[in-house]
Amino acid sequence: MAEGSLDPAVAEVRRAVRATLPESGTVIVALSGGADSLALAAATAFEARSRGLDVVSVTVDHGLQEGSADAAARAAATAESLGIRAQVVRVDVESAGGPEAAARDARHAALRAAAAFENAPVLVGHTLDDQAETVLLGLVRGSGATSLQGMAPRREDEDGTVWLRPLLGVRRQTTRAACAASGLEFWDDPHNVDPRFTRVRVRERVLPVLETELGPGIAEALARTAEQLREDAEAFDEMIHETIEDIVEHAEAGISVSVAALAANPAALRNRIIRLVVGSEFGVSLTRIQTLEVARLVTDWSGQGPIDLPGCAARRTGGRIVFTAR
Questions:
Q1: Which residues form the tRNA(Ile)-lysidine/2-thiocytidine synthase N-terminal domain (predicted)?
Q2: Hey, which end of the chain has fewer CB within 10 Å, N or C?
Q3: Run of H or E residues at 25
């Protein structure tokens, strides 16, 4: 059937997936059974056939609510009906960090394990609406430009896991329409409408109020903001990597940065250098307050002692800022 005769929602999701898929090998679809991931799975299965791609779905059963095992089994069965090799993984969710964060960590661990086993990227069904919610939450929390960049279309973790998000330009209503047009029955997770969760309140209450009071297009505007900030960040990162080669030296049990070079850079670049050096050397992220405290060793030096940071300490020694492991 020609794409022009397709339901518009199905065609839009397929186009988004087509632009993201690799040319060969295997891909993994993170399949919850909800409309977003099910539309993603169906489009991936269709587009994969012309490329000879092997498609594997991984449905993670967190066991946090009654009937979760049945929902996971239905999702896997639907995937198999689409020609996808389906897996269901049951995980134990720890309580540390709250149930939402713990479930996310357990889910990501299962998907990373599958990605490593299959040597394949993981496709995730985050939509434009998810992106808008992420940006708005980052703005409210004052998390800075990194948080406001939202989710990247492609991200590679330090362990080599590649995450692909083909649907970041697709609205949630489109994925639901695509499922309906394809006769795919999706599962509405009760947690997605539970007001105990901050993201749900943003989705169900805050964004609708903004649309009503400020006019339509709020979600698209937030997503555009994220894209623009990612472009800026990529440019900054390129500048930083070029700069770091000249101003960073390895030190005993750590790394050091030239005070003069840091002082010569504008504050935005100086702070990014500090965060990048600490993140790359010690694998930790600094808050803005911690970053500014380190920067004071450059801009407001009065003999202060070492600054304790996550996983390391920073001190000024002569003309250098030295970061050492704690």
A1: 27-204
A2: N
A3: none
**Position of tokens 């059963």?**
61
Structure tokens at 218: 């709020």
Topology adopted by domain 252-325 = 3.30.465
Detail the residues annotated as belonging to a binding site for ATP: 32-37
- Per the annotation, binding residues are 32-37
Q: Which CATH superfamily is domain 3-214 in?
A: HUPs (3.40.50.620)
Alpha carbon of 296 to those of 4, 222, 246, 289, 306: distances in Å? 60, 33, 21, 11, 12
- For the chain, what is the mean pLDDT? 90
Domain layout of the chain by residue ranges:
3-214, 252-325
CA angle 63, 68, 74 (to 5 degrees): 140
pTM above 0.90, yes or no: no
Report how far residue 162's alpha carbon sits from residue 108's, in angstroms, rounded to the nearest whole number.
Answer: 12
* Tens digits of residue pLDDT in 264-318: 989 988 998 999 899 888 988 888 899 999 999 999 999 988 999 999 999 999 8
- How buried is 187 (Cβ within 10 angstroms: 0-12 exposed, 13-18 middle, 19+ buried)? buried
